[in-house]
Amino acid sequence: MLKQSLQQKLLQKLSPQQIQFIKLLQVPTVSLDARIKEELEINPALEDMSLANMNEPKEEYPDQDPSEAGSEDQNTEVEDFNVEEYLQDDNVSDYGSSRGRGGDDDDERKEIPIAVQSSFFENLTQQLDLLDLSDKDRLIGLQIIGSLDDDGYLRRPVESLIDDLAFSQNIIAEEEEVLSVLEKIQQFDPAGVAARDLQECLLIQLRKKDGETPTIKNAIQMIENHLEEFTRKHYDKLERTLNINSEELKAIIDEILKLNPKPGDSGAATSKQMHVIPDFHIENNDGVLVLTLNARNAPELRVSRSYQEMFQHYEKSDQKDKKMKEAVQFVKQKLDSAKWFIDAIKQRQHTLLKTMNAIMNYQYEYFLTGDERNLKPMILKDIADRVDMDISTVSRVANSKYVQTEFGTFLLKSFFSEAIQTESGEEVSNKEVKKILAECIANEDKRKPLADEKLTEVLKEKGYPIARRTVAKYREAMNIPVARLRKEL
Predict the structure, then answer these.
(1) Which of 174, 300, 364, 429 is buried most deeply by CB count within 10 Å?
(2) What phi, psi does 408 have (nearest 5°)?
(3) What is the pLDDT of residues 295-329, one digit of tens each?
């Protein structure tokens, strides 16, 4: 028998407008332009004022609380919408005028010269063309060069190269032929290119030096037969095996450290650097911090006039057939989408400024001095309570936004840290402890580096009673190796 019952539930659901705001909030400034261009392409009812006719009179977008945007019903009947809502003004966001307030150098259109230079692979191909090779050997050489990784290593097995030549070039090559061409390429610049592992890369570079000197001879022997002991810094064992003293070993190590372990990276190092565009700027104006938002976060957007005129035409028209209603319904959806996008951009700007202002006030002493010791312990909840927002909202702002200060450009996430209690009972940021730990390691005797147990004692003497495992965790977080690997001669 079928049983029926009534249940009452409370559910929380995000409206499309709230989802759009969340997605926009986590977008950094460097990607915001692309997101706006994408919206302009898919929604013809949205216009960028910077691209519009500058002779048109500027009007303002009607004020609306962005938090109320999600309450509108997208399924409203065509006859129920208010045409005047779209006809009042040009819907220019009222924050468009703030472009001059957060002035950025990017607003000035400057031509940046582009350096023209040969790529890593082009350089190798040019050197290959200088060799007196047969057509077959040249094709083998091109196959080898094309198989190199970005760091200059050949990690593809010779057997696979032979198969590639057979299938792609219809060339039947023997292993000896491929190895012969490979040896020639390994003599190209930069030294060490086309090596199959680190050991071969270092040996190629050492053998290009004067092999008659004892230091180079011992360096070749060390890399060839004792690479593991060298990487693990078992210096005592190396001295006994090679029958050398500490001064000779130091000269050998200095010679090896001059070698390039990644010969392919030298030409591409600059192109791989990430270009960071700060979202905020903090200036110290005679002891008073001034916060501004990057002008790119305040685009001048408005709802299209032509789409507004469609509503006017519909209001005056006596024709109310099905096709007309469908057309107007489409126009209304595009107008709603444009209005919601403008509201989301406006709410994004407000949230960014509010959150960053709270972070700046919380870490006021740090932004005045730039000294990490002035960083207070701060977690997401501390800022969320100040701005009366959810922790997830603060997290979205902190994880992908940068602030430019007089001391550099930093990710907002880097200002958050846990608290550690000193012997005096005062709570300090763990960043302060990390900085002191790094100073202790930097000032240690490199011949006898401090182990984690000794570093724990040093920090305790300075008033920071933390456990050895915490010291090890902080050291690993700063990419500092263990004491044995920090040892120098």
Answers:
(1) 429
(2) 135, 180
(3) 777 777 787 777 767 766 766 666 666 777 777 77
